[in-house]
Amino acid sequence: MNLKNITADKLVALYQNRDLSVTEVIKSVYEEIDRVDKDVRAFLSICPERALDEARRLDAKIAAGEPIEPMTGVPVAIKDNMSVRDLPTTCASRVLEGYVAAYTATAVERLRSAGAIIVGKANCDEFAMGSTTENSGFFVTRNPHNLDRVPGGSSGGSAASVASGTSLIALGSDTGGSVRTPAAFCGVVGLKPTYGRVSRYGLVAFGSSLDQIGPLSKSVREAAQTLEIIAGFDHFDSTSADTGVDQYVRDLERPIKGTRIGVPKEYFIGGLDPEVKAKIEAGMRIYESLGCEMHEISLPHTEYAVATYYLIATAEASSNLARYDGVRYGPREAGNSSLQEMYRRTRHNRFGDEVKRRIILGTYALSAGYYDAYYLKALKVRTLMLRDFKQAFEKVDVILAPTSPTVAFRIGEKTGDPLSMYLSDIFTITQPLAGVPAISIPCGKNSENMPVGMQLMANHFQESQLLSVAHHFEKAGGFTV
Amino acid sequence: MRISEKDVEYVAKLAMLEVADSEKKALAEQLSRIVEYVEKLNELDLSGIDPTPQVVTSVKHAVRDDRVAPRTGSSEAGRTVKLFKVPRVITER
Question: How do strand A451-458 and strand A293-297 relate by DSSP bridges?
Fold first, then answer.
């Protein structure tokens, strides 16, 4: 059974009515993985035995008439930078090849407690560093809409799995667009919650002041359902927020007439593809027809986003990745003369080029004599970006923009030029820098039949409003499954 | 600011990375382009602006009671094995 034409809530209803068993669905998901994933390659590893055990346990529960959880028997994919006990957790890096996690990330544990079944671990850019999944240390994932194109990144396996029907919901992580870009490129929904909304316990750290776990799904409703389950304070993550979790699913149908939507002029720049622009403008007209007010706004420091982000994220990464030394995790390369040589050999032989480039850039930005000139300066510009958003949210409720300046590009098109790759992230990096939530939702396809993503942003902890505004668009635009 | 091959060597050493001689030139080139690009930030007047190391939204900083809580976490790693095997770090001269 391919999952392309069904959503989680409908699948759970079928289980409840005994129209389908969890076991038969999970079996068919693996048949589908066999058929589809040899081309798409969304999964780094799969766990059929464990998933089928879980399926039989849930079937017994349903047969006994016990009350069932909201995600019962829903097949999910987990980005491979989240720990799941007894499963490989590699971050798509050869430095963690063969490493098996000793505990489960809180977000994953909460999803499992709600009945979800993990079908496998999804491919990504190594340590989530990339915008296309081409930086995976193992293999490239392909876009299910066109196998010659990238799926976006870094959560490319998560997005490609949902889009190709080999999972219903996937978890990804977003540091500078890593949930939203692949969602846009693969034509699915991708949510980056407010910084601190979802516990990061068990998420392998990349940029600690930016990282946030978020769901990918075919519908806004499933994103809301997933967030409701995974959000909330966790005493294992001291950066998780103790703010109450709203009832995102209930709030979806909240009327949006009169909602003030801001359109930042800085997002409609020269590099924006004309076809993407046209789709976003058509999206604005849908909101107008729903009775929303459109306002032109300004986020004046947007043009400094790429520079700011690539200093802060690489500085944090260089520190976070110091722990991969061949001792604590994963394999070790022989160092003949000294311990230091063993560290260097292991890191040299097992980190990919992009990871090394970022570690070096981050180390440089933090090194003596350059700290004030680069890292500290970037932190100050970040303050200006946060102010931009605060001022904007005094005038409007939600901000609307493209998710990416282009649709998915060809595999290999930008790999030779790191700076041009970084610049493609321009629309998805100010939100993590400011900590605000943002969602990418499908808004049609271009003339080559490639999906276009529209991005909505809201103020801190306003996910309820964000999801509801997205949900109304999905319904009105006919973008529902 | 240009990043030289020497800079690459120095920073790689700080970061515990080896860089092959054949990679140095290309890496210095790529990093120079990136660093020249990020110097765009010099256009801004940042006097009197505080840095934002982290967007703290609603984090409880209170010290909690020291009590045992259920944990299906990393503490189990230490329970299943008593010893970790590591490479020799002290050798006879």
Answer: unpaired
Rounded Cα gap, residues A286 and A305, in angstroms: 29
Search chain A and give the residue with CA nearest B69.
A235
Residues of B in contact with A371 (CB under 8 A): none
Identify all chain B residues contacting A240, using CB atoms and an 8 Å cutoff. Answer: 59
- Rounded Cα distance, A159 and A141, in Å: 10
Residue stretches of chain A with pLDDT short of 50:
none
Cβ burial A205-234 (10 Å sphere, 16+ → b, else e) = bbbbbbbbbbbbbbbbbbbbbbbbbbbbbb
The Cα–Cα gap between A354 and A245 comes to 37
Beta bridge partners of A399: A262, A457
- H helix or E strand, kind and range, residue A388: helix A377-395
Residues of A in contact with B46 (CB under 8 A): 377, 380-381
Structure tokens at A154: 């870094």
pLDDT at B42: 94
User: Residue B73 pLDDT more than 90?
Assistant: no
Say if B77 is an interface residue toward chain A (CB within 8 Å).
yes
* Cβ-based neighbour number of residue A27 at 10 Å: 16
pLDDT digit string, tens, across residues B22-54: 889 999 998 899 899 999 999 999 999 999 998
Contact partners, residue A268, CB within 8 Å, separation at least 6: A277
Residue B67: per-residue pLDDT: 79
Residue B20's alpha-carbon distances to A356, B6, B7, B29, B33, in angstroms, are 12, 13, 14, 15, 20
Note whether B15 and B31 are within 8 A (CB): no
Note the ipTM here.
0.88
- Cα distances from B71 to residues A84, A237, B67, B76, in angstroms, run 15, 13, 12, 9
**C-alpha distance across the termini of chain B, in Å:** 44
Q: What percent of chain B has pLDDT over 70?
A: 68
Torsion-angle region of residue A395: left (phi > 0), alpha (psi -120 to 50) or beta?
alpha
Q: Nearest CA to CA, how far is B33 from chain A (Å)?
A: 7
For residues A225 and A322, what is the distance between their CA atoms, to the nearest angstrom? Answer: 36
What is the SS3 assignment for A412? Answer: coil
Three-state secondary-structure class, residue A231: strand
Contact A364 B31 (CB under 8 A): yes
Interface contact B73, partner A, CB < 8 A: yes
Query: A32 vs A27, A38, A67, A170, A293, CA distance in Å?
Result: 9, 10, 29, 16, 44
Which residues, in sequence order, are CB contacts of A278 under 8 Å at separation 6+?
none
Give pLDDT, residue B72: 53
Is there a contact between B17 and A344 if contact means CB atoms under 8 Å apart?
Answer: yes
